[in-house]
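re: that chain from earlier
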Amino acid sequence: MIDGSGIFVKRGRYARSIGSGGGWHSDSSFWGRLYDMLCRVLKVYAFLLVMFTLMRMAFIIGLNSYMAQNSGMADVLHALWRGARLSMQSTGVLVLPFIIAGLVFFLISKRAERAAFKVIAAAEMTALSVLFVASFPFYRTFRSGFNQMVFIGANEDWTALFWTMMKEYWLPVRLVVALLLAYVLWRMLMTFLDHRIGPELPRMPIVIRYVGRLAFLYMLYLLGLLSVYGGSLGWQTGVNWENAGETKDDFLNEAILDDVQMLYRGYEINHRNHSSNGLDFTAADVKRLAANLRGMEASSDNLDTYLGREAPGQVMEKPRQVFVIIGESYASWPLIDKYAQLHIADPMKEIIAEDDTDVCYTLLPNGASTVSAMTGIVTGFADANLYLTTMEEAYAEPYPCASAPIMEELGYSTSFWYAGPATWESIGQFVRAQGYDSFHGRGDYGDVPGSVWGVDDASLYRAVLDGTPVDKQTFTVILNVSNHSPFTVDLEREGFPRERVRAALPEGARDDEELIKQLGHYWYESREMASFIKALKRKYPGCLIVAIGDHADRYNIEKNPAMYERYAVPCIITGAGVMKGMLPEDAAGSQIDVMPTIIDMIAPAGFRYLSIGQSLSYNKMGVNYGFWITHGAIGKTDVLPIEPYPTLEGEPGYVDAARLDQYIDAVRAVSWYRAKYGAEIDESKLVGR
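^ sequence. v structure.
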């Protein structure tokens, strides 16, 4: 008979068509069997993807009482769409065993292939059904889909856990329901695989058959990309568990993740948490270093004793509003004279030149990524090999050196505005756990331009201006994302002077379009930040504004830039009461010194607070995960004896190596111990870590 697909099989090679159906009625042709097997795999893929969508809908309907009151059908549909894209990843993973079984058996035995498919389908349907049934009580208990608690539970008392599930969650009943659901799904999938779809097609000319084969294989390739990148052909626009939560509703953000993705999230967070082993200090080391940090005797076993600070007294009238802007990849190097010909930082340089502005160019980021900058500002801890956003301790209560409680004690309500989704690094939950009154993420800004990481800066700043009251004391932290790959801002629409920048580059870099695009995004970020600062000053006269970079080390003009140009970020302080020279010329520090700087500027004399960092008005050195900095020198923390490199110009300045080495250890040891083990200094807490 004629090949029903019209694609894979030559005349006279077999007795029955299989091409249009993907059922189990195969022939002896290699291409016929391969095509038949691939069609069955595609059927499994389609079945699983539809099943995930239906389960997601059932989850939303079954737990709809947890949905925010201001969420509507548009939010639900958006969650379903994002979820379907994300579930393409889960589906791709679950289809892999079918592909392997098909490749092993499709030329050997149809019966063996069918048996393998049956076993794999039974195992997967059982696992997915159990997870689906369990997801409802899990969410009711934890207000979250499956997370690291699943893996933490593996270390619990299994007997107690078993009886808890028996008594509280009706384990036998739920298990029976899950197994019945699994059987129904398994039968449906096997029936779907047995069923042949579509009519037989007339035999096509050989050219069309080969074109058809290539088209079919290319379709599989595209489907593979969609599965790898979460409903996209590249990572730049793909959906993953960290960026999935784009709605303004925490419940819908959880619903976007299917059960496989939830388990993967839990595994990743648990893995990060277990990898946060901190540093190799004894309790005696911590006590000694903490005391040295404050120039005190090591007499107390309460770590907080050594963290106490007292504000020297206001240097300005207390501002009604305080804003901290954390700029994505906002490095210091475009702001210095060496790169003035690029003109990509001119708007912010104009702000810096104003009489009510001062700047420290020698600031180190808290870590190599945005999350380190965020945690540095939110908690006050230096980077110390701890993944704070995954640690249970960080969610129990705010740390005593956290920024929000201190600012609230000064009379401010606190808010955090992030351009991206609340699910990124669990930032929404984290900042609220650390005392912020409110959090605003991607879902709060509506349908505005942006990238996979979040909305463009202009939209974020507009929302902050609209959402910050004039007549209330507020402390506001803003974290933008536009200056981040995949660099999606429409630079031509925004008026970026591409050719002027190109002409100012060294000849060897003028054809580097990717570099020019990156410089264009710094230009955009600088322009929008300056515009936002001017708007803040107009709307909130007397406000205080601090702008810092989250990190540098993303792009430079030189292939091997100087250490300072690669890593340093600026700290720009502006507003009523700020004066040139307020910060000493030799000021230096890191992001943990930003909040003490603000507090010492606005708090009344004698105001007590806890802090590891110290005000830039007298701090002379900064340290992070791998580097140290002073006004005149920069170097690596793991190189001893120290090797200083110059910062802004000339030869490296003098560095007190012994004092620097002690400061590096102190900042990291105290941050590590206080974040993980609390205030009591006790060696027994470190046993078996």
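Residues 30-62 form the longest helix (33 residues).
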